[in-house]
Input
Amino acid sequence: MSNTLILANAPKQEALDYKMQLEAQAQSPLLVQMCLEEELKIEHAQEIKRTCVLSYPGQKIYIVAAHHFNVFAQNALLKILEEPPAHTRFVLIAKHKHALLPTILSRLSCEDRRAKASHARFGLDLCACTLGDIYTYLQDLDRKNLSPEESKLHIEAFLFALHESAIPLDLDLLHSVDQAMHANYLYYRPSYNLLPLLLKVLELRDSRQF
Output
């Protein structure tokens, strides 16, 4: 039995669902133990080490799910992940691999169960929009009084539209996207953030660089 890392959008809920799945499929004695925390700390790791060695006649699976994994807690679990007790398997559940140390990752097989986030469609056809279309679109965005998070979604939608239109993301345009993201968090209006990007698109189209 190999220890496993499951990547999930909601680690705690994934742990509960996974436990139910394991118990429903079990055909022999099975003990599922769980540690569900916002942050896995050293005291949690010590409790896991203490309880996982307790004897049980069948298979044991220990599910550890957290949004954050304290470095000291990870180091405390390293030895037991490397040499788990007999008939015991560990399942760690996190939002992303970066939550765990390379030494921990090297001892786990990985399964990605994260739902792929869909993205909003951009409000303009980058291959056909005119300067007038851009002006109308940006005026409409400014009237909506968008929050920085909502404005960020429009910049991300622009990037997806750029990719779908096969317009090259050159260094100049990439720098403009970085500036737009920065200006967005300074609460600049969407028209200020997106106008340089859209003008650059028109320039690329006119010069037939794609």
The CA atoms of residues 75 and 104 lie 8 Å apart. The beta strands are 4-7, 30-40, 59-69, 88-94, 109-112. The two ends are 51 Å apart (CA to CA). The first strand starts at residue 4 and ends at 7.
